[in-house]
Write a structure and sequence with these properties.
Layout: H1 2-11, H2 24-49, H3 56-59, E1 60-68, H4 71-85, E2 99-106, E3 110-116, E4 121-132, E5 135-144, H5 155-161, H6 173-185, E6 189-192
Length: about 190
Amino acid sequence: LADAEARAGQDGDEVRVKGEEPTQEEGASMASKVFDACVVAQSVIQGAIEPSRLWRSSNSRKLRYEVMGSPAEVTTRIAAAVSSLDNVCPNLISGNPMRFRLSKHKNGKCVSMLIRTPYWLDKATFEVRAVGEDKCDLVAFSRSTGVVPIVIPFSFVLNCLFFFVPFTDGLGKMSKYIIKQVVEESALHATLVR
């Protein structure tokens, strides 16, 4: 113990004795990590179920692009954009950073991602089809997954129970914003068709 105290005095680091309670700051950090893990788990479940399908007309957007490049190149760039947008891309309404998480990547075919915006969960899917030599058709579909915020415990269950409650994300405004952010971040030579 004397050696540990001497080292702590030299390094300036605190040494916790075995059995000592964590500090309030350490406890809060641990609780935050547990909460984040629960929210991620709920996001995966809710992203698979998508309870808000009934209200797609008011909380989704589908855009089509013509993109220069091979299907494999396009999906690889979109998948890479997910990690570069994570915790950097601001929410259109609140300004808070959104969390992007890759859900599925089928090289040359499609990329799906889950986006916490930061309280609700959105899902975006980008499907790629070759149209010619180094030219692809990219169909991007982004939508909200439920009316209850994803940060509420068991929100995926509540969203299934309240699937009939109408809601909107600004008539697809957030969904369109997410698609445009991903396309811009992927640095693809893309032309919006509709």
